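Table S4 entry, ATP-binding protein.
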Amino acid sequence: MIRTLAVENYRSLRKLIVPLDRLNVVTGANGSGKSSLYRALRLLADAGQGGAVTALAREGGLPSAVWAGDKKQEPAGLRLGFAGDEFGYAVDFGVPQSSGAQPGGGPSMFALDPEIKRECTWAGPVLRTAALLCDRAGPAVRTRTADGGWHRSQGIRPYDSMLSEFADPQLAPDLLRLRELIRSWRFYDHVRTDAEAPARAARVGTRTPVLAHDGADLAAALQTIRETGDDEALDAAVDAAFPGSRVRIADNGGRFEIQLHQRGLRRPLGPAELSDGTLRYLLWTAALLTPRPPALLVLNEPETSLHPDLLRPLADLILTAAKDTQVVLVTHAQDLADAIAEGARRHRTDVNSIELLKELGQTQVAGRDSLLDEPLWYWPKR
């Protein structure tokens, strides 16, 4: 489980070190930095796929992504990291030394690509020299040997992550385990529910323990929960939101389609007839009752387009998911946060409430009086 998330110089997150627990609820006013925190987690996940540099380039490169505060304090780069019970990881992105050149001469067209200046993994929750497992400084990467020594440094291109290039079961087994841990993280953002949404179309059905990010395989995911997951929890979640209703999956020649049977209606409602809020709730039901829980599940504003009456059933679903996976919820809805807090008290579980606020262009954690209130964290030096 991730215990600490650290971000420096990313958008409004000038210097942010946040403690995490099993269930984390991030709230705050508009513009306080909630979306930036969510995107920072996405960038860390992209690092596990070898795509963080590309993701930053899509944002306009470092000039667009770094903190835009006082130019006298303009940061040299962007740093992301996390630490947990078993592993820690940090990466430092910086401006390229030069724009490079094309083979035929002339400046490179990839000027938006930042370079990875420093990258480290370590054992345990705090970076220490003795705990380093893999260490990258510029183009040089060294990995820890079984006897505590170091393998000879190897070269790496400035835009590649050692997570993608050196995660070898023989050379760096710990790095491989860390990469697979990061790749297991799951993110759900504003899933479409409009008339042309993928979730409304009939799709070929195969066993689907993990709902796709666009929700296209919703029917198959719900049927998978019914057959191999917690079908009682599925029925209870639907009944809590729509009393007397049940979800059934119609099989039309191998193509699956949702049918919602509601009390008082003589026929079930098909996917094209469901309201945006109803469809969205069913999407969250499939995501949160997954038979294959990830190491980390991150939800960004799941309350969007939901009727207020659905927030309490959604809160119960989130609390259920947190029994099997670490959850980070980013929400604008205080009613949802309150419903989760109430449900947690009822079930005698803990919620890590993180309220963000912005002061002088910098995102801060509300209620934090001094640096002593932050988790212990060290960045690797360039």
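The mean pLDDT is 91.
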